[in-house]
Design goal:
Blueprint: H1 2-12, H2 19-26, H3 32-40, H4 50-59, E1 61-65, E2 70-72, E3 80-86, E4 88-95, E5 98-105, E6 110-111, H5 114-117, E7 125-129, E8 134-140, H6 141-150, H7 153-174
Antiparallel strand pairs: 1-8, 2-7, 3-6, 3-8, 4-5, 4-7
């Protein structure tokens, strides 16, 4: 049903497939329809009605990140939520001279959620890890806030994700996993 809604929205705008989408296909970026399907498969947004998924997809930014490249760095301003579409992203934190791996996230996982709530600098670095590149979608905090006013379920899902992440980090600390 989402694809039909996406195509109908595109046709209503007179896109006939969308010139912008054709350009993105040429440079390897996802079309709005592909982004919509990807967002629909992520638990955080799976409950959204098709028209809202489409609106979110139109505002989502598709990025391909090479292994070792940072999606964002600890201390940077955080304004976006990220979703892993393909590949893996490692969340790591500096502790003195050591880098501690907090998590490795694969397709369907979200990260950077705290930036949606507190506006503080990033508390960790997110880095693509091989093999191969990672593909992520990012969504600005204002877009999520607008959707959250219409669908409070988004905030419930975000709070669940943050709670799970906090529990995993607590378990990591309790297990005293060595720094890398």
């Amino acid at each position: 049903p989402v694809v039909r809604v996406a195509l109908a929205a595109s046709a209503a705008r007179g896109d006939e497939g969308g010139a912008g989408d054709a350009e993105r296909v040429e440079d390897g970026m996802l079309t709005s329809i592909e982004k919509t399907l990807a967002l629909e498969s992520v638990a955080l947004f799976a409950h959204l009605p098709p028209d809202q998924l489409w609106r979110l997809a139109e505002r989502a930014v598709d990025e391909v990140v090479d292994p070792g490249e940072a999606v964002f760095r600890e201390g940077e301003e955080g304004r976006r939520l990220f979703l892993v579409l393909d590949g893996n992203v490692r969340i790591e934190k500096q502790q003195g001279e050591a880098t501690v791996e907090l998590a490795v996230l694969g397709p369907g996982a979200s990260f950077g959620e705290m930036a949606l709530f507190d506006g503080h600098p990033r508390s960790a670095t997110a880095r693509a890890v091989g093999p191969g590149r990672a593909r992520v979608l990012s969504v600005d905090r204002h877009v999520v806030a607008r959707l959250g006013r219409e669908n409070p379920e988004i905030y419930e899902a975000l709070l669940r994700a943050l709670s799970e992440r906090l529990r995993a980090t607590s378990a990591l600390i309790d297990g005293e996993r060595p720094a890398r």
